[in-house]
Each structure stands twice: as structure tokens, then as C-alpha cells.
């Protein structure tokens, strides 16, 4: 104990152990992380006598007591109050955890991580924790952070346990449980036991991944968790425990889940529809469900989805080729591509480095131009009944999940709606996203203006703002001469209508997507960046498909999870299986 305490004195708590040359100090840093986790969970029930107090206490408490002493002394040196706060509902983050949160709270669970996680049994002294209990306990501790010890492999789970996480690259930098929103357990005094009784396993895990606070900007760091594919029912989870991930991926996933695979080979794409284990767990309302409503994400949406028929009872295959400016869909319909609208390569590069305010502004202008181009070209090449129906269709492409199109509390929370937006959404009976798109369309002529055009502004804003609100916006915009007229309006309008958030969604979510319009008047999206032999896997109910890529391993090759494909485009409505057991026929509405 003395040795560990002495090591701790020489360590900046939560220092990355791999960056520490002294092995003993690195070990202490790992141990201190472990101690914090055990202390929060109260799982280590091994009691020992503390030499200083001559009292019997749990080993974890005893070790943390030593940490307390060091942190308190260090805190006083720094002139701050960074001591531990007892209890699961600690409202602050102390010196023990702040760097941890900054470093690790940036990535959501991905599909294969969940599959592997179901095999984990974490040992704490004489106690064994199942994955389900681990998740529930994590609801109370995730804001404090921490690590669990896998004694079988002598490693810190979620750090360097190759046994469970060898599919991940740069685990140290990218992987952690996300922040949690929308769960009463974090804001009330409810116990872990009462939380388990109130929430099913599925909703607990789903709450764990519904994060709106991630800071990640790279697509691979924004992977969405497909937890509901691997829920606690034995028939859904059981196959994961024994699955051989060295098999060809087509075989692996047909063993346990309803899935869609898209294998790429140069410019050729093949669809594989696979039937297997159904999903039987009840889900929260915000989770897309095949039996009710889903925004299936595929490489392309077409008007004749109902023409897709299974060649056999268990699978179907179609080839799609991209040749220059034309989109060829064999077996369905020959569709010419009238427009192919995308962010420029320079715009994408700026987005990747948008910490520079100047570059971010340029990226937002690119996003505004992208949206204006899509609207204007769609007017010429589509046959929607009026401008409102066209804007609604474009809105559904940008935000493909169905619940984002329905006015109401969930829609307002999803878009962090301003009070004025809530009022307008209710009075006009439209979603906040569509409201923002309407106003953007009205103000888009300012992109070509060199000065503020009062007439354009009044035409766009008079239906939604009061006279005094309009005057306030114009006054604020006139005080921003260093911005372009359009961006000055975006900033000035922000207390009432958040167009910045609207454009930022397009910038972040669509930088790897291409919007297109076919000669049949269908709107859609495709994604870029696939390599030859990549596989894009789409799971039942997933908000986004996942890219799986070949990698060398032990003298051979196996497929490893690469990241999300981000394909949420829709053509002319939402589609879902008519026969959800065989997944052969689709309906477009």
C-alpha cells in the first residue's frame, strides 16, 4: 500500500499509462482508475484493516482512502476543492476524473463491441458481475468514469484487453461508454435496484447510448450502437457467445441477426438480404422498429422498392453500378441521374478541421450552398405538388428518422428548439426541422447579396416574427459587418430561429454523403469512401449501416468493424417490410 501511495505522488492522476516510462508508475495509474470504479460500484466486498485508522473496511475503500489523502493534499496545493464526493449521484467531477472525461467520453458503442461485450464476466475479488449488471451499475457511475478489472486476463477492461476488443483500433483514444441523457437515474436518488425494476434491460442499454453530447467529429468516432440487436433474450444473445468471427462475415451474421450486407467490388455493389433471428424486445418510442416505422438506410432508395423480390426464400441479390453521371439499377428500373450534388473536397477538408472559426464559417457557407442547390435543382427535376411538399421531402432526406418529422416534444428536444421555434412548430403544426428549412429557403437569396436586403429578410421572416422581433434581428445583423449578409442573419436570428444548428447538422452528418435526383423525380443520397471488398452491414432497426473492412490477422484475413457508413437517405417516403418474417417485399408510402 505504501509503495502504491508513493507512486501516486509522482503521477498526474489519469495520466495515460502508455505515456509513462516508469512501469511502476504506469501500474499505479491503472490501479487508481480501477479503484475509482470499484469504489463507485461498491462491488469489492473483501475487508481489510487499515493501518492508519485501525479500522476494518473494504479493500476498495481502503485504497481509495489513500487516494483521497493524496488528492486532498494536491488539491490544497492547487488552491481548489477537488475531493471525492461520496454517493452515486455526485454532481461534480473531481480532479480524479476530469481528464478522463475529456479523453474518453467521445465514442458510442458499435455493433461488434456489443457482441463481444456480452461475453464479458468481470471479476472483483470474490464477486462476479454479469454484463447486464455492469450496464445498470454504469448508469450511476459513467459520469464519474472508471475502469473494471478482468482478472482472468490481468487487464483493464475497456483499455487493453485484446481478448475482447481486438477489433478496435486506437482503443485508448476512442472507446468509452457515452454520456447518458433522458434517464431519471442520474437526476434522482433512485437506487440501482429500483432502476433495474423500472427499466427493462433493453431500455437501460438504449438509454446508455442515446447521447446528444458527443464531441467527436470523425465519422468513425460517431459510430452508433446497435444494442437493441443484441438484447438480453437468450435467443438473441446466445448465438453471439459462440460465434466464430474468423468465418466469412456473410456466414457470421446469418447465424444470429436479420441483416443486410452490401459488398463492394470497385464500382459494383451487391445487396444481400438475410433472414435469421427476429427481434422480440419492446423498444422505446424513439427507436426505429421494423414492424411500425423505420428509416431503412441503404446505398440508394428508389421509387420501386416493392419490385425487389427475393430470388430464394432466404436471400436476394441485386447489382448496382455507378458509371459516371448515371445511376444504374438492374432488375428494378433504369434511372438516369439528373443531378449529383455534393460538398466540394475543399469543403470536406475544412469540416475535418473546423476548430478554426474561419474554416468553420467557410464550411457553413458550403453547407448553405449545398442545400440551396438541392432545393433549386429539385424544383426543376421533380414533380412535387407545390413548394411545401418539396421542402418536406428534402427535410425527410436530411433527417430520415420518422420521429423527426412529427411535431411535438420529442422533435423539439431532438433539435434543441428555441422558445420561438416551439411556439411556431405548435401553431403551424410542422416539425422544428422543417420550420428551419422553410426559413433557410426564404433567406437563401442572401447568399448572393453583398449587403443586407431588407426586402428579402422581411419576405422570409414576416410570417414568423413579430415587428419588434424583426427590428431586433435587423439591428443585430447590422452590427456584424465582418460576416457575409447571410451569416450575419444566421447569427442575428439565433435567439429566435437556430439556423446555425440546421446548417451544422448538414455539415457534420452529410459530409460523406452525395445527394442526387433521378430523371424519375426521386430524391436520394449515396455515400462515398468505400474501398474494394468493403462490406456495409445494415442491422434491423439500425439508424445507420456499418462498414466492415478486411484486415490481416495471424497470417490470414478477417473482417473488422471500420465505422458507420452514414446513409440515411430516403426516396419518396418511408419504407418497411410488408412481411417482416421473410423481409422480401417492401412498401413505399
UniProtKB/TrEMBL annotation:
Record keywords: Membrane, Transmembrane, Transmembrane helix
Annotated TM spans: 486-508
In Swiss-Prot or TrEMBL terms, this protein is called: Heterokaryon incompatibility domain-containing protein
- What is the source species? Cladophialophora chaetospira
Source organism superkingdom? Eukaryota
Q: Per the record's keyword annotation, is Transmembrane helix included, yes or no?
A: yes
UniProt keyword Transmembrane helix present: yes
Database matches in InterPro entries: HetReg/Transcr_Mod
